[in-house]
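Database export, one record per block. Field names are fixed; values are copied verbatim from the stored entry.
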Amino acid sequence: MKENWSDCIGEFKNYLKIERSLSENSIMAYMTDITKLREYCERQYPAVMPQDVTSTVLTAFIKWLDTDNARTQSRILSGIRSFFRYMHLEGKIEENPASLIESPGTGIYLPDVLSVDEIGIIISAIDLSKPEGQRNKAIIETLYGCGLRVSELINLKLTDIFFKQEYMVVTGKGEKQRLVPLNQSIIKETEFYLQDRSGLKKISDENILFLNRRGKKLSRIMIYTMIKDLCIKAGIKKKVSPHTFRHSFATHLVQAGADLRAVQEMLGHESILTTEIYTHIDRIYLSETIGLYHPRAKLHNPPGQ
């Protein structure tokens, strides 16, 4: 049974508040944007629920907005994209209808990434003397080392991990499975964690890899909260979520010269177009590097300007 507009918008609002920790003003801005789309669909396509919205409907919606202000249009489209990105993330839709809709003059959306040093600082901030310390270290290593979505991480099973063969089986969107290699840091920290895990008094979910202190599967909110606390402790000012580690995983691979098809396979992207966003990040990184270090670039960018 398809969810109606009220249900989907309500769930999206909770997601923005709990998982993305947005302010009330930001959440209200998103709600205003989505409400505009809802009102349009209810007038023009009464039978269309959020799951039925297509890129054709969104294109017509943009025309219906009737605004020549590119900034206003871009802001509204940003809210719409976030809504359908959430719907796709939650498995409510198979494809994101907003992915091919471009904002006027906005260019390409580039996700935030962490540097290798910043990831090291976050890992160093983990207090291994605490009961959950080793588990959290294994989680960060796995998020960054395998490029997992948070939903994939919390559902990892012991039977999905093959330490000797150095790979794991990841179940992604649409129950599609993929093989992802394990590096030595993941193997070492996860094996240490499993020693701690064996000391839990009661385990409810025997085959789930990462458990809380009550022996139950972790929730998405617990992962978000853990990462937020670690970043505060580490002094990281960027807005970091579990997905930031996935973006960083892909970006660092592309920067190092990894084949884009291999990155696509490891991320579980159906389309190579989705993976290609990381080539744009790489080009920006290279351009910034040239701007900072190339002698001819320095001639046109004197210090302090």
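Remark 1: The chain has a mean pLDDT of 84.
Remark 2: DSSP finds 14 helices and three strands in the chain.
End of record.
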